[in-house]
Amino acid sequence: EVQKHSVHTLVFRSLKRTHDMFVADNAKPIPLDEESHKVKMSVKLRTEYGSVLHMPTLKENLREKGGPNTEDPYGHKEYSGNQGQELDYMITGTHPYPPGPGVALTADTKIQRMPSESAAQALAVALPPSQARLEANRTAAGVGDIYRHAGAGERSQPPGVAMAVMEAGGNKNSALMAKKAPTMPKPQWHPPWKLYRVISGHLGWVRCIAVEPGNQWFVTGSADRTIKIWDLASGKLKLSLTGHISTVRGVIVSARSPYLFSCGEDKQVKCWDLEYNKVIRHYHGHLSAVYGLDLHPTIDVLVTCSRDSTARIWDVRTKASVHTLSGHTNAVATVKCQAAEPQIITGSHDTTIRLWDLVAGKTRVTLTNHKKSVRAVVLHPRHYTFASGSPDNIKQWKFPDGNFIQNLSGHNAIINTLAVNSDGVLVSGADNGTMHLWDWRTGYNFQRVHAAVQPGSLDSESGIFACIFDQSESRLLTAEADKTIKVYREDETATEETHPVSWKPEIIKRKRF
């Protein structure tokens, strides 16, 4: 027979059950026993800090604890040696030790080495000054004290002025120093660049450009599958080379031999002999379009990068593939070589930049700061630095480890190409046809150019695919989507008065990532 209870009784019974369930709280910590805690800490002090317990002790610490011969909470007696003298530190000798192995340590056998008087004085000088000594050496109120204790001291202080208190040799000197906000240094003035020649002749987008070491002519590669050689002074066409069966994406002229190297979306890498204007070598191995190439400045090595996510190192003479640099996870868009380590730098659509060890064929450093594809990398001709271009921003880095220097923000477009000259003018060319010119040292954007497209072209055919300075660095050549090559030079009539730097340090900020 089920006994019936009132709702009131059932609720309270339920509450009691719940209370009983949770009252035995096993997770609650056991109350701390003071005596056992003291023993534990005493043992811990002896085992972990026993080797340094004999070292000098600050007198102020003793005073705070209630004077000499006081005990700490864990039973260790503290004492000061000469209680009547004004000593800052107690300098003690070594622990007692036996004279040799196997000898019992007793009062008769123990040896204790005490420091000599000169050593003790030297140690006392080396130790930092105590507050007592600072008080004793203070002779007069410093400027800081006057400011601190005067009624309107803080209010009368000019904004941005900070008190710099220097503790030198125990003397307290106060100096008023203006605390500057971190600002960007004033950029170097550069004359603006102006367009003075437009060269046409290609029947497709001009994808790549290179100037020969003698500065007499330059070479371009195009989506019309041809390579054209132009006279640099006059802009006249000298020669057309055919052989690629798809867009030519990279050209470079060797300074060590009369060779021109080209690569394209047909997976081919060709070596042209400029004495016969014929292809003399092919470099086979890439599995997809070859996007860029560069020559090593001191050895006969060619480096190419491809959409197959690799870069390859070729022996120019034997056509052998020395190394396949694998590690990128998307198309490698750009590659650069230099004589110093790291000798190879690649930028990829996987948003990373890799610095490679040429001898081992392995990655030295991977830089992952960019958030979007890295299509352009340029090395400074004089400094041991380089820059990389991406739609998020342009970043500058230090060799050899790729330490980040600064961001150059403001070119909000897909940056296809970068070029820099010895004067510190960095040029970035973008997919929308805009070109920004920057001061390399400070990252100041001193000029923005958007040249009109060639008559007859669509406005959408406004894009800069490649740019390069000639060997004299007085001309800047750009390869563009309106099938032209545009040549810029510095405006010789411009002065710093006619084109001042509109530089506002408070609004120019460097992001660090």
- In the predicted model, the low-confidence regions spanning at least 5 consecutive residues are 60-65, 77-87, 140-144, 146-175, 506-513
**Rg, Cα atoms, Å:** 38 Å
Under CATH at level 1, the class of the domain at 248-368 stands as: Mainly Beta
CATH architecture of the domain at 248-368: 7 Propeller
| Main beta sheet | 4 strands, antiparallel
Question: Quick one: CATH superfamily of the domain at 248-368?
Answer: YVTN repeat-like/Quinoprotein amine dehydrogenase
How much of the polypeptide forms β-strand, as a percent range? 25-35%
Spatially, the strands of the biggest sheet line up as 3-30-29-28
Q: Using DSSP, what is the number of strands?
A: 30
Specify the helix fraction band: 10-25%
Distance N to C terminus = 78 Å
Mean pLDDT across all amino acids: 82
CATH fold descriptor of the domain at 248-368: Methylamine Dehydrogenase, Chain H
Question: Structural class of the helices, strands and pairings?
Answer: mainly beta
What is the molecular shape? elongated
Total number of helices:
7
Keywords: Repeat, WD repeat
Family: Belongs to the WD repeat PRL1/PRL2 family.
WD repeats: 199-240, 241-282, 283-324, 325-366, 408-448
GO biological process, one term: mRNA splicing, via spliceosome
Describe the structure.
Belongs to the WD repeat PRL1/PRL2 family. Keywords: Repeat, WD repeat. One of its GO terms (biological process) is mRNA splicing, via spliceosome. Pfam families: WD40 (PF00400). The protein is mainly beta. It has helices at about 5-25, 35-50, 60-65, 115-125, 130-135, 145-150, 155, and strands at about 160-170, 170-180, 195-200, 205-210, 215-220, 225-230, 235-240, 250-255, 260-265, 270-275, 280, 290-295, 300-305, 310-315, 320-325, 330-335, 345-350, 355, 360-365, 375-380, 385-390, 395-400, 405-410, 415-420, 425-430, 435-440, 445-450, 465-470, 475-480, 485-490. A four-stranded antiparallel beta sheet has the order 3-30-29-28, with no helix packed on it. A four-stranded antiparallel beta sheet has the order 4-5-6-7, with no helix packed on it. It has a four-stranded antiparallel beta sheet with strand order 8-9-10-11, with no helix packed on it. The longest helix is centred in the N-terminal third of the chain and has 17 residues, at about 5-25.
